Each structure stands twice: as structure tokens, then as C-alpha cells.
Amino acid sequence: MKNIIIIIQIIISIALISAILLQARGTGLGAAWGGGGESYRSKRGVEKILFYLTIILAVLFFITSFVSSVI
User: Fold this and answer.
1) Residues 6 or more apart whose Cβ sits within 8 Å of residue 62
2) Which residues, including other chains, have CB under 8 Å from residue 23's CB and lie 6 or more apart?
3) Does the keyword Magnesium belong to this entry (predicted)?
């Protein structure tokens, strides 16, 4: 059972890394100090799907990590 969870976790982690790298670059922390006014646009289309996919993958990674530590 633990081996299956580890394999699932590896697959999720590769997908999460890919989803993060595919996202469009923002200004990062530059917007916090007055820069990057263009970062206040809304996400549309593929960018929105990729954003939600990243959140879902991060939650799944957390869940599999928790389950792996409990087992």
C-alpha cells in the first residue's frame, strides 16, 4: 500500500512542477512595493485552468504526504 502511495506522490509532484513551470511569469514580490500594475488582470482560458490545476495538485500532494506519514 505504501509503495502505491509513493508512486502516486511522485506522479503528482512531477505534474505539480510542470504546472508551476507552465504558468505565465508575474512580477512576483515586485508588486508589493509599488511595481507591476499590470498584474491586476484577471485570468482567462488556459491560464485559469492551469491556475486551478496547480491548486488541486498542491492539495493532492499534501494529502498524499499526510497519508504516507500516517501509514
Assistant:
1) none
2) 47, 50, 51, 54
3) no
> Which cell is 33 given?
512595493
Q: What is the pTM of this model?
A: 0.73
Say if residues 9 and 61 touch (Cβ distance below 8 Å). yes
Percent of the chain topping pLDDT 70: 77
Cα–Cα distance measured from residue 8 to residue 45, given in angstroms and rounded to the nearest whole number: 28
User: Is 35 part of any domain?
Assistant: no
The residue segments making up the domain with residue 58 are 1-24+46-70
- For residues 55-60, give the mean pLDDT: 96
Determine the average pLDDT of the residues in 21-28. 74
The residue type at 53: L
Count the neighbouring beta carbons within 10 Å of the beta carbon of residue 19: 19
Let me know if residue 37 belongs to a domain: no
